[in-house]
Amino acid sequence: MCGIFGMIGSKDAANLVYLGLYSLQHRGEESTGIVSYDGEKIVYHKSMGLVSETFNEDNLSLLKGDIAIGHVRYSTTGLSHSKNIQPFFAKHKKGNIVISHNGNLTNTVELQNEMEDKGSIFQTTMDSETITHLIARASNKDFKKDIISALFRLEGAYSLILMTDDLMVGARDPHGFRPLCLGELDGAYILTSETCSLDLIDAKYVRDIEPGEIVFISKGKLESVKPFPKKKHSLCIFEYIYFARPDSDIFGENVYSVRKNLGKQLAKEYPVDADFVMSIPDSGNSAAVGYSHESGIPFEIGMIRNHYIGRTFIQPSQLVRDFRVKIKLNPIKDVLKGKRVVIVEDSIVRGTTSRSRVRTLRKAGVKEIHMRVSCPPIISPCYYGIDFPNKEELIANRHDIKWIKDFIGVDSLKYLSVDGMLKSMPKAKSEFCTACFNGDYPAKIPKIFSKDILEKA
Ligand code: SF4
Fold it and tell me: Which protein residues touch ligand 1 with a CB less than 6 Å away?
């Protein structure tokens, strides 16, 4: 759960990266950073906190140069610590290497063990540092080949932006788990996680970086290579369900349209008689509109979101999460009192957030609550970059739907089927990863997941 943005070929590179990160903030609220090359040296500013809290006129004015990359982070692996804030950079005999990484590698422990046996010392617990070491140790006499041979050693999920003093590199793993696209503004190239960040700076969307593709961009020229053996595509379906912004196009389709399709399919599979359909703003909005359109039941706004706090799912501590649910949403009692409502949720992870929302709605006088979830039950953790909790904490892994219905406190609870979810997608079902819904992992999973090590430590 991270957002990455890079630009080369503009004298305003760092300022535009800053704006780009603003629109990727939903992908990680824990820390952020920008690194640029000012013509003589690498300059950077990084901090825990939001983009708006981290950057100001003074520190941005120091980030000079026509190449810059940035990152917004939520710690899926590696401690939540200032040492782990990306972009990660290192200097070695081949020059400077700076990396922004989205996704989780699944062979980090093996790679780190191997390199530590040969004398490497790691400063952080991040996947990204592993990549830097692999590049530094490669000996091809050609820096681009060093990058390619380093990426050959990686397993799992990565969308990467890498920079040196005068080169920006974009890479997407052969499965294509996480999105990465290419944009252009006045001859400058951009690499970014989502297209909504291109819209913000009036840049043109050029194309997606393809799974298994590496692009090298320098002096206005782009070179593309596809060095890896072909692997089955495994685009993360959860990007469409929850994670990406609805105004972005990812994997070739608009996220809002896909979410609306999910809501329509949900209405076909699980109709119910009710006075109105509502969402829990904002993430359930698009699917709720779809449910309303398909069922013919009017859509109403039953809760108002306080926009001056972050997304609850993104906060790591359970204590903080429960508190934030209460301050985040306020019901409109006049709309809700005595009504039978369909609530469309995008997903249920632990169930505690939904339970808290339902209690709030009951207090507001709602007569019947029928919850419809626009994805199937989440039964397995994600090892490829979405921060689901351990298997034991996933409510649908431990309990059946009847138990969950009673726990949450609704009159009925239905989840979209796996088939229905795949039918709502713009591509063939074989193109997607659905492992969190069926345990069918398309790429090797780690022997030891570094987050588990850290949680035990
Ligand atoms: S396991 Fe789920 S969240 Fe993780 S990549 Fe696959 S579809 Fe996405």
Answer: 177, 236-238, 382, 384, 386, 433-436
> Which atom of ligand 1 is closest in space to residue 380's alpha carbon?
1
Identify the residue with better confidence: 445 or 222: 222
Residue 113: alpha-carbon gap to chain centroid: 28
CB-based contact 269:429 (threshold 8 Å): no
**Residues 13-26 pLDDT 10s:** 999 999 999 999 99
Which ligand 1 atom is at minimum distance from the Cα of 238? 8
Residues with a catalytic annotation lie at: 2
| Number of C-beta neighbours around residue 249 at 10 A | 21
Side chain identity at residue 297, one-letter code: I
Cβ atoms of 294 and 264 closer than 8 Å: yes
What are the structural domains, with CATH classification, of the chain?
2-234 (3.60.20.10), 254-434 (3.40.50.2020)
Measured N-to-C along each axis, helices 285-295 and 255-269 cross at an angle, to the nearest 10 degrees, of 50
Q: Which burial class, exposed, middle or buried, applies to 134 when counting CB atoms under 10 A from its CB (0-12, 13-18, 19+)?
A: buried
d(CA 418, CA 177): 18
Phi (first) and psi of residue 15, to 5 degrees: -65, -40
The CA distance from 180 to 224, in Å, is: 14
**Cα dist. 117→93, 125, 419, 429 in Å?**
21, 17, 47, 42
Atom 4, ligand 1: which residue's CA is nearest?
382
Structure token digits, residue 448: 């030891």
pTM of the predicted structure, to 2 decimals: 0.92
Q: Which of 177, 258, 382, 431 to mutate to test the pocket of ligand 1 (most atoms within 8 A of CB)?
A: 382
Residues in a beta bridge with 346: none
C-alpha of residue 329 to centroid of ligand 1, in Å: 28
> Half-sphere exposure (CA, 13 Å, Cβ side) for 127?
31
Average pLDDT of 420-437? 96
Identify the three-state secondary structure at position 415: strand
Secondary structure E strands in 18-133: 31-37, 42-48, 67-73, 88-92, 95-102
At residue 329 the predicted structure's pLDDT band, cuts being 50, 70 and 90, is confident
Structure-block tokens of residue 263: 């809501």
Task: Using the mean position of ligand 1's atoms as its centre, give its distance from the Cα of residue 104 in Å.
Answer: 11
